Amino acid sequence: MLKRIAVLGAIAATAAGAAAVLPTGAVAADKLNLRYSQWLPPAHWTQRPLLHKWYKEVSAATEGRVNIQPTAKALGAPPRQYQLARDGIADVVWVVHGYTPGSFPLSEMVELPFITKSGEANSVAYWRVFKKVLEPAGMHKEVHTLTMFVHVPGQVYNNKRPINALADFKGLKLRIPNAIVSEALKALGAVPMSAPVTKLRDGLAKGVFDGTTLTDEAIYAFKIAKFTKYATHIPGGLYNVSFSMAMNKAKWQKIAAKDQATVMKLAGEALSLRIGRGWDEREAWAPSKLKEDGVVWNTLEGKALAGLKDKLKHYEARWIEKANKAGIDGAKALEMFRAEVAGYSG
């Protein structure tokens, strides 16, 4: 009996010693199967062709110890993805910050009008500013952030009329992804209508929307070319969208330190670059395809563009004010972001 107690004590001591080298409050698992809440269509170029491939790369690099598996259907509505990761309902999520207005004010920096050089440049710049400024200020403190990114410049598409002057926006019912676009369109006399992109095709088919703010490539990715007659381009974009890939913090802490390092080598800036570059590559062929399909194309310029910039110039100052309230120097953060974008050469 005494011998048995001694053996049990030795086992307990060994286990305690092993636990001491693991992340606080967690015990690393030999193998983790993590659920990715799949709400975007699996065939979308960011999903099966890119992210699902990336998940396989993560599994291979960690020798099968970290496995991310897409769910058969979403574990919650698109606006709830961050909360799903926070609460442990999902392990890995794709977040669109603008779907929950007011929840992520710091993310609005990358959504400002006229600010996008390219998906790749702006995505990499976003990750760098996030790690140096926004994350230390508390952004995403409830989850582990895998990467941050944006798409190519956001433009305007509709099936009613060409937009050659600011007055042409008046009365158009346009689907929007975030608060900045909503306010901008209201200022122009349009009728902004908030909805996830997954609701876009049905809304256009039923006449709920006259058009949408989107990107050229997404016209085809979400199969709405038949509902698109006019494309209006704005240099630098009318807006952008802030995205993130995030993970439940408790699950992250169950990953051994060496595997955490491996995952983040593949994630972080590398994944920001990969997704941003993918958007640029897809956007490159889309304009000619739109024109080929008979979409009337115009670029806002001259007096109309100057008037638009004048109407929207206050957004930058307002974001700086929000950032200052969050405890960071908003002007310096925005200056850093712009410098990173301008200096990025791939």
SSE layout and pairing:
Elements: H1 2-19, E1 32-36, H2 47-61, E2 66-70, H3 81-87, E3 92-96, H4 119-134, E4 143-149, E5 155-158, E6 173-176, H5 179-187, E7 191-194, H6 200-205, E8 211-214, H7 216-221, E9 230-233, E10 243-248, H8 249-253, H9 257-266, H10 268-292, E11 296-299, H11 302-312, H12 314-325, H13 330-343
Parallel strand pairs: 1-2, 6-7, 6-8, 9-11
Antiparallel strand pairs: 3-10, 4-10, 5-8, 5-9
Short description:
The chain is α/β, with parallel strands linked by helices and 346 residues long. Helices cover 45% and strands 15% of the residues. The protein has helices at residues 2-19, 47-61, 81-87, 119-134, 179-187, 200-205, 216-221, 249-253, 257-266, 268-292, 302-312, 314-325, 330-343, and strands spanning 32-36, 66-70, 92-96, 143-149, 155-158, 173-176, 191-194, 211-214, 230-233, 243-248, 296-299.
